[in-house]
Amino acid sequence: QVQLVESGGGLVQAGGSLRLSCAASGIIFSMYAMAWYRQAPGKQRELVARILTGGTTRYGDSIEGRFTISRDNAKNTVYLQLSSLKPEDTAVYYCNVIHSGRDIWGQGTQVTVSS
């Protein structure tokens, strides 16, 4: 059974930083691209960042170079470093992997940025 467990969210002031972690189990982690999405209240879930098996990264248009995705295959963990946070970054952040043709999601971690 594939499981994703996010952690690291919290309340931070505008301009601050957070590091989110997502621990994966039930998959050969190094063989899968991993992604972070976010969903703000009343909005659709959107892609934040994706990291491929070889380490290539892709970012959503709204990120503007402020976030960094990375992975540690030895720890089966993907990270999202959030910097220069803005109130509009407030959302639940979800870890994602596509396994056997299905989207697998974690439970999410709340990030709240105060102005």
Descriptive overview:
This protein has 115 residues and is mainly beta. The protein has no helices and 11 strands. The protein has strands at residues 3-7, 10-13, 18-25, 34-39, 46-51, 57-59, 67-72, 77-82, 91-99, 102-105, 109-114. The strands form 2 sheets. Strands 2, 4, 5, 6, 9, 10 and 11 form a 7-stranded mixed beta sheet that branches. Strands 1-3-8-7 form a 4-stranded antiparallel beta sheet, with no helix packed on it. A hairpin with a 4-residue loop joins strand 7 (67-72) and strand 8. It is globular, with a radius of gyration of 13 Å. 29% of the residues are buried. The mean pLDDT is 96.
Total DSSP helices: 0
- The low-confidence parts are none
Q: Overall mean pLDDT score?
A: 96
Strand count, sense and closure of the main sheet?
7 strands, mixed
The percentage of residues in β strands lies in: over 45%
What structural class should be given to the helix and strand makeup?
mainly beta
Intertermini distance: 40 Å
Calculate Rg over CA atoms.
13 Å
- The tally of beta strands, per DSSP, is 11
Task: Give descriptors for this structure.
115 residues, 7-stranded mixed beta sheet, 4-stranded antiparallel beta sheet
How are the SSEs ordered, and which strands pair?
Elements: E1 3-7, E2 10-13, E3 18-25, E4 34-39, E5 46-51, E6 57-59, E7 67-72, E8 77-82, E9 91-99, E10 102-105, E11 109-114
Parallel strand pairs: 2-11
Antiparallel strand pairs: 1-3, 3-8, 4-5, 4-9, 5-6, 7-8, 9-10, 9-11
Short characterization:
This protein is an all-beta fold and 115 residues long.
